[in-house]
Amino acid sequence: xxxxxxxxxxxxxxxxxxxxxxxxxxxxxxxxxxxxxxxxxxxxxxxxxxxxxxxxxxxxxxxxxxxxxxxxxxxxxxxxxxxxxxxxxxxxxxxxxxxxxxxxxxxxxxxxxxxxxxxxxxxxxxxxxxxxxxxxxxxxxxxxxxxxxxxxxxxxxxxxxxxxxxxxxxxxxxxxxxxxxxxxxxxxxxxxxxxxxxxxxxxxxxxxxxxxxxxxxxxxxxxxxxxxxxxxxxxxxxxxxxxxxxxxxxxxxxxxxxxxxx
Length: 262
Ligand SMILES: Cc1cc2nc3c(=O)[nH]c(=O)nc-3n(C[C@H](O)[C@H](O)[C@H](O)COP(=O)(O)O)c2cc1C
What we know:
It is a single chain. The protein is an alpha+beta fold. The protein has two domains: 1-71, no CATH class; 73-259, no CATH class. 34% of the residues lie in helices and 23% in strands. It has six helices and ten strands, in the order H-H-E-E-H-E-E-E-E-E-E-H-E-E-H-H. It has helices at 6-53, 62-70, 95-98, 185-189, 230-243, 250-259, and strands spanning 73-78, 83-85, 105-107, 119-121, 123-131, 134-145, 150-158, 164-171, 206-208, 222-224. The strands form three sheets. Strands 2-1-5-6-7-8 form a six-stranded antiparallel β-sheet. The chain has a two-stranded antiparallel sheet with strand order 3-4. The longest helix has 48 residues, at 6-53. Bound molecules: flavin mononucleotide (FMN). Flavin mononucleotide binds at residues 147-148, 174-175, 178-179, 227-232.
């Protein structure tokens, strides 16, 4: 074929594009397990931090993080019955993906869907932090709508199943410098020691819009808001309201405190 032929130019361009796309696809597929391993490691680091290691996790090697993660007791909770479920492997069950398949899906009634989820998995992985036989903390996953994005976090609660031991947001796409201030460690630290429910098991936790009166009886349930980020904060408050409400973990927490979750 003549080198000047337009047909030859088209064939060469098409062949080059095909080879390149095969190479890119092959690279993406072969790198996926490595990418997944890094994501898992990052998630394990977050869980080890909130399990009680705190900033010490920054000094830990990947191997130490994996060992500490393996010490956590991962369990699946059946949210609707409020009990542990032994049917599936809690380490491989992905509640975010399971929110799609019908057999795991629960449609959230409109009047309870304050976090804008639409539906959720009926099984959710939680982590028990134990020292010997003694329960130290329970780590619960939460998520829901912020202003621009879905907020993903973990709330760790003390063994009284009521006091917040720690919290973290590990996924969000709110505006940098505005909504993403929910990531600030000093703000998240203010959640520690706050209580979720009062003596009558009524959910009382609030992210406050105004000044908190430190001596008021309500102060133990309240965290300062962030001025200029009220929409994100309202979203986060609704995340808490949903997940610690009757359609979220409330039944499980009540049951766990009396029967140990069986
Ligand atoms: C471009 C742009 C991005 C914004 N991003 C956020 C955000 O991520 N989160 C948020 O709560 N408010 C955001 N706001 C501000 C909200 O519109 C609203 O003014 C604010 O949440 C009110 O907070 P305040 O009542 O504490 O003043 C943004 C505003 C603009 C113009």
